[in-house]
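Hey Z.,

So I finally got round to the zinc ion thing we talked about over coffee. Here's the setup:
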Amino acid sequence: MDSNTGTANCRYNDNGEENTAHTATDTTADGTIDMVTGGGDRYQQLRQMVRASRSVVFFGGAGVSTESGIPDFRSSDGLYSLIYPHPPEVMLGHSFYQTHRDEFFAFYRDKVLDGILAAQPNAAHRVLAALEAAGHVCAVVTQNIDGLHQTAGSRVVYELHGSVKRNYCEACEAFYSGAELLALPQGPGWPRCARPSCGGAIKPDVVLYEEALDTGVMQAAATAIAAADVLIVGGTSLVVNPAASLIQLFKGKDLVIINKSPTVCDYRASLRFDEPIGRVLAATFADVLD
Ligand SMILES: [Zn+2]
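And the result:
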C-alpha cells in the first residue's frame, strides 16, 4: 500500500513534453489516429493481439477487485472519517500497526479482511487464468491484496502489496490463512499465534503504508513487464507508484488499457477501453470461459 505519488513519466513524450494533445481512445502508440471506432472491432483487435502473443502480461489495480464487490477503501475516506478517527492511510500504516495494534486489527478485519474473504473471482480473473493455461498470459502483476487471481487459477501472480490470505507469526513464523486468522479467538491483543507456548503477534503479509515493497516481487514484476510483447493494464489510473514506474519498463508492441477513467499512459495505448474490465475480457474471450 505504497502511497507515493509517481511522477508518471508516461505523461511525457520522448522529448520531455507533456502529452496532452491526444485523447484516450482515438490515438495509437505512434500517435496516429485510430480509425477503429466500434467496440466489437476493438474486441476483435484485442483478441488477435493476445492470440498472436505468448508473452502477455496483465497489470491490475483496484478496479479489478471492485468488480468482485471489494470496495476501494482509498476512495472512501469521507465515509470512514465519520466512523474512524483516522483515514485508511493512517490506520493501515506501519506506525499505527506498531502503536495501536488493537485499533489497527479492528479496522483491518472490518474494512479489509471481511470483505475480501467473502469475495469471489470475477470474469476478469477467470479469463486471465484461462489465458495463462492456454499459454498466452505469462504473468499477472497486481496491486490488489485479495488473492483472487490465484483463486481463479492463475499461477504466476506478482502481488506488489502482498496478500491478506498470508499471515505469519512474528515469533515463530507459523502460517495462517485469512480464514484461520479470523478463526483465532478475538478480543484485545487479537490475533495471537495459537501454537503451544508461542502466543506471538501475527502480522498480515501485506505491505502497509510507510513500508517498502518486497524487492524480489518488484524485480520479478519488472522482468516480466520488460519481456512482454503485450501489456494489458486494467483498473488503475497509473498515477500511483509503483504502477507508474513499472509501466515505463514495457518496450513491447501493444499496450492495452482498460479503465473507466483516463490514465496518464493513454497516449501510448494501441487500444483503450473504458468499459468494466470483466465485461471487456469476457466479451473478448468468451470461448475460454466455456
Ligand atoms: Zn507463533
